Amino acid sequence: MSLFGFGKKKESEALNSEKINVNISNVCILGSGCAKCNELEKNTVEALNSLGIKANIEHETDFAKIASYGVMTTPALAINNKVVSSGKVLKAKEVADIIKKLN
To answer: How far is Cα 56 from Cα 13, in angstroms, rounded to an integer?
Structure first.
């Protein structure tokens, strides 16, 4: 780590454009539509694009449907109908790491 941030990579640079072969049928952001939910959605799109994955992203705001996932704190991220994160805004790299582990 440098003293003045020199040599520090931006997050978008750290997400190298590697293509992976993961079958993702659906991605769902669970939350009310607040700023944190929207940031999670933006970071998820960035992660999917960096990995070369084309997927439809839904943003579920109906609290009854969110509760049906077993989520009590939002924002949450569900991939292939499985909640992979809850109560936290993941960075794009964190989302990409989760997706890679699905492989």
So the answer is: 24
From the candidates 27, 28, 30, 37, give the one annotated as an active-site residue: 37
Q: Is 37 noted as a catalytic residue in this protein? A: yes
Quote the pLDDT of residue 69: 96
What are 15-41's pLDDT values in tens digits?
555 666 678 889 999 999 999 999 999
CA separation for the pair 48, 40 (Å, rounded): 12
Q: Which of 20, 34, 57, 102 is catalytic?
A: 34
Can 28 be counted among the known catalytic residues?
A: no
The class of domain 27-101 in CATH terms is alpha beta
pTM exceeds 0.85: no
